[in-house]
Each structure stands twice: as C-alpha cells, then as structure tokens.
Specification:
With 400 residues, the protein is of the alpha/beta class. Helix content is 39%, strand content 12%. The chain is globular.
Length: 400
Amino acid sequence: MAFLSDTLGRVKPSPTIAVTTKAAQLKAEGRDVIGLGAGEPDFDTPANIREAGKRAIDAGKTRYTAVDGVPELKAAICAKFLRENGLTYTPAQVSVGTGGKQILYNALMATCNPGDEVIIPAPYWVSYPDMVLLAGGTPVPVICGIETEFKLTPDQLEAAITPKTKWFIFNSPSNPTGAGYTRAELKALTDVLMRHPHVWVMSDDMYEHLVFDDFEFCTPAEVEPGLYDRTLTCNGVSKAYAMTGWRIGYAAGPVALIKAMGTIQSQSTSNPCSISQYAALEALSGPQEFLADWRRVFQGRRDLVVSMLNQAKGIRCPKPEGAFYVYPDISGCIGKATPAGTVITNDEVFATALLEETGVAVVFGAAFGVSPNFRISYATSDAVLREACTRIQRFCAALV
C-alpha cells in the first residue's frame, strides 16, 4: 500500500515558488542573482494599514472569528464592490479566506465533481489547473497566443464549452501576461456565456488596481448583469495594498455557493487571521490615494522593461495593460546555443541557462501553458530591472 495519496500525483509544486527558492539558494551560496520570479510588490504595506493591525492586537482581537470573515470586513467588502464595480452584495454573499488562492480553491472544492470541466485561458496563473485537479475536475486550457495579445476570443470560448463545462476562469489583468480585457472585449465573451446558462464564471480580479495608461478595469458581472447569479467575483488585498504576507482574499457571489465555501473552510483552516482581517478592513476603507502613485511607479517600470527586452536579439515583448508582469516571446532564440554549448530547445532550457550563466531568475513559459516565453515580475527597483535586462540582452546577443 502506497503511503502518499494518489491525489498528489495529479499536481505539481508551484514553478514560481520553485524559481524563487532556487534564486534564494544561489544567493546564499554567494552568487550574484537577480530574482524576477516572485509576484509581489516591493513596497511596504502602507502605515495606516500596519497601524490598524497593531490596534487590533492591542484591542485583544486575537481570538477566533466567524469562519469566513468578521462582519465589519464583510460590510467593507460590500461597500468596495458597490463603490468600485457597481455590484450590490450583502454580507451573506461574501466570503473571506486566507488569501485569494484559498477563495478559488474553496469554490472549486465546493462545486467540482469528477468529469466537470473548467475552461482556463492560457497563459494562466500556474495554480489554476492544479487546483481544478485537486478538486476532482478537469482543466480545459485554451491557448491564447501572442497573435491575440494573449487574450481569449469569443470563438475560442464558444468552441471550448461542452455540456460538461462547469466553470470559466477569467483573469484580467492577467498573471502572467499583464493583458487586460477592454469592456468591449469582455462583453463579447459574456455574450457567449449568456448562451450557455450552465457555465459559471470565476473572475479573478486580483490586479484590478494595477492598470496603466487609459485602460479601464471592468469585471464580468458588471459588464453583463445577466451573469450576476452565476458569477463568483474574487479579489484580495495582497497585490494592490502590498499585503502578500497578511493572507487575506475575498469573494462575493450567490448565497448558496458562499455557504458551501464556508463549509469547506470550516473543516480546513477555519477563520483567516483575525489581525489581518482588521488590517484589510483599513485597506479597503482607508485612504486610497497612494494607489495612483504606485501605479505610476509600476507603469514606469513596465515601460523600461518592455523597451529593453524588445532590444534583445530574438525577443518580442508586448506592452501589457496591467499587473506587474511581462511575458516576452523567445521564438527567435529557439534552436540557438549559448557560448557554453547549451542548445536552447525550449523556454525551460532558456530560463535555466539564463540563471546559470547570468544570474537572472525568471519563470519559464511552459509553467503557464504557453511557450516559448518567460515571465518577468517587474515589482522591483528601476536599477535592478535595468541590470537584469542588460544581462538578458547580453545573453541573447551571445546566442549562435
């Protein structure tokens, strides 16, 4: 009898975490490594949010809370959805979890049966397919290449839907590409979904506030109110408010689904950290002006990275609408060899050679479902990004 569960064989460790771990290991060994794998802001959590966490400790708010969130935070989430997205929810329609990942996982665990299909546009966040597999469902990736700016077309969505489809996972702006869907592009997708009433929508809006130029964020239930009763709108405080370690995600949707998610959570982690919940309450209810300042910083970094990568031989890098990632295409590097003799047969070989020969750590594209590409997180300083991109340019120029 095998000791480990058969379920473990259906999933793999997160490649993004693996890259970050490898970069940290090489740094510890004395190597000059620039890690561009981790997807978290380099800003400190704003002072007012930190102070709210301290006040919660001093006020003794350190005990168990309601399984899926304190009433004050749920009310603030409802206010946020109304204020920013024009969506009306009651606290009974809101679930708070230990990070956005748990929210998505709870929903899939609460709804997926063997044979249920989940449509996932690729490139995708590395965890989506594995969470579906853990929940017993079947991920259905749909390849969205550089020719469509890494965005799903209505025809692709229509072709992917079958009688077994249960969920469509939507992420805009996207991890890993930063691609954002305009209102018109999203409306074209929701028109397809309106023709298939058995398909539910899981909208991952984690990068909502990280959009650039004149791009305007929108979410499915906002664009098509007819989808309201079968949409789970998911978000969190980690990316926009630099609160990755606080571990608070949230979602709103139909009461029956929210209750089912609460049941899953009650038998896994129970309530999210009480202190983090009160910090998140301040994040959503407190001053928001700093978000515009941070967006300007991220936009400048995006422009720097896109410009420098497009000057690298064999690389083509689209300019994303949001998030803090770029997803350059390396088709022009495939088949070439490094001075050390390594033949670049795919993007994983490219990323490995880049790390070993230049000390720049990126995540290879196959981890996100579309190759040959790699992902860079530009959530670090201009100086670091400039040095990293210079090393990438030199690496590509040396390929023969």
